Amino acid sequence: MKQKYLTPLALAFGVSFGMPLPATHANDSHWGADDLRRVVREWLVSTGKPVPSDESIGPIDDRLRLSACDRAPTLAPRSTRGTSIVIKCSSPVAWEQIVRLNGYQPPGMASDGVTTSNQRKETWKMIVARSSLPAGTILSADMVEERSTGNQPGDLQIKSLEEAIGLRLSAAIGAGSILTKRNVARAPDVLKGEKITLLAIGGGFSISAAGIAEEDGYLGDILHARNLKSGTSVAGKLGASGIVEIRFQ
Predict the structure, then answer these.
(1) Are residues 174 and 211 in the same domain?
(2) What are the backbone dihedrals phi and psi of residue 164, each rounded to the nearest 5 degrees, phi first?
(3) C-alpha distance from residue 132 to each of 5, 170, 177, 182 (Å)
(4) What are 141-195's pLDDT values in tens digits?
(5) Which portions of the chain are predicted below pLDDT 50?
(6) Which of left, alpha, beta for 123 (phi over 0: left; psi -120 to 50: alpha)?
């Protein structure tokens, strides 16, 4: 029977090298879970990483049957921030398997989880409150500040001062609290108690008067307001520049 060989691979993000070692399979035509675990262990040894127990490699279904590689498979971290290894076989039948490796630290990741490049930590920006702020506060430039973090921000995190300013807090926050879409929302275009302009429009006429909003409102909302001169409450469509239009047929 023709003897097959495996090569333990050392990878520095896709560059492989190693010495061929004889493969020891229960079945020359197929690989199973034990073969994948052995390949991972050999790769770890060649890269100077500690070799974990079999329980930490996987989980791999022990019923797995793959075509045996007749040349060394390649192994590489799935990403710079993950703990999974990609095993690829190219011949005689191409296949790919992803194996999770508990406790593995990919190249380019420092022990604190911060991706590094040329010994420099990669950082991201976050927006935090300068002081404790109550719910309902509309954020201004003097209330928030930008800080650096070694943790990659999530999709809900506010990532710039420009994005934060003008938003309204939907919940009270403490000093240093990170702003996310969970604790801020778009501020209303008009706030309750804010002065607005009432514009009555009918057939061939239009009359304006000073008014005051009786509720918060966004552009396009039907807003209830009070005429400051007459004291009458009216409702109209909120438009740009705080103009509330009341149309008469």
Answers:
(1) no
(2) -80, -40
(3) 65, 14, 8, 17
(4) 999 999 888 777 777 888 888 889 889 998 999 998 889 888 888 888 898 999 9
(5) 1-27, 109-117
(6) beta
Residue 115's pLDDT is what? 46
Tell whether 111 is covered by a domain. Answer: no
Q: Is 214 exposed, middle or buried (0-12, 13-18, 19+ CB in 10 A)?
A: middle
For 135, phi then psi, to 5°, come to -60, 145
- Beta-carbon neighbour count of residue 235 at 10 Å? 13
How far is the C-alpha of 66 from the C-alpha of 94, rounded, in Å? 10
Separation CA 7–CA 39 (nearest Å):
9
Residues 61 and 148 in one domain: no
Instruction: Note the pLDDT of residue 104.
Output: 62
Residue 234 lies in a domain: yes
